[in-house]
Amino acid sequence: MFDARLAPLATRLLAPAAHWLDRRGLSADQVTLTGFGIGLLAVPLLAAGQFGWALAAILANRVADGLDGTLARLQGPTSRGAFLDIALDFAFYALVVLGFALADPARNALPAAILLTAFIGTGSSFLAFSVIAERKGLASKDFTGKGIFYLGGLAEGAETIAFFLLACLWPQAFPWLAYGFAFACLLTTLSRWREGYRRF
Questions:
Q1: CB of 43 within 8 A of CB of 58?
Q2: DSSP string spanning 22-57?
Q3: 55, 164 Cβ separation under 8 angstroms
Q4: Which SS3 state, helix, strand or coil, does residue 147 take?
Q5: 115: Cβ contacts below 8 Å, ≥ 6 apart
């Protein structure tokens, strides 16, 4: 819901760091892979109940995610970079939810399973729309400079990170937070199905 508004601000804030990395010869793909590696640390940290450190790993991953896009626009975007970016993002989101399930299986396993099901809905509808939009030569007015067509919704990247932040700060509330965010994901999936049916 907020990604299109936040993206220009993030690009401006990350531009100095992107130029610094570019001068040192680092590629956007290297930043993407490094960020994913850092994000993976959140899973064992969550499982061990180290929610503060897990949040730090999650936020570092998200900074890298913004930085790789800024760097890619500076160096010239590639199809491989666009593929890595979206594929690793979806994997990262799912792995964080798994980490919460491992932290307290008795309380968190069912809410995590429901949320992961909802993530499949948002992810599959997003990618399916993107593929057909590409075939039809459509371009997103709200997300320019992206490697694939971005169709917005109620639950996007910013909202997902806000959910992770709240769950790390109040881990005991994870079940109810997960149910609430799963509902937001359901609404997003339904809106994307409707948009795809209407436009295609």
A1: no
A2: HHTT--HHHHHHHHHHHHHTHHHHHHTT-HHHHHHH
A3: yes
A4: coil
A5: 97, 178, 179, 181, 182, 185
What the block records as the tokens of 11 is 């690009």
Residue 148: helix, strand or coil by DSSP?
coil
The answer to whether 84 and 32 are in contact (CB under 8 A) is: yes
pLDDT number for residue 135: 85
Tell me the percentage of the chain whose pLDDT exceeds 70: 88
The pTM for the full model equals 0.87
Query: For residue 5, is pLDDT > 80?
Result: no
Query: Please, are residues 129 and 192 in contact by the beta-carbon 8 Å criterion?
Result: yes
d(CA 1, CA 42) in angstroms, rounded, equals 25
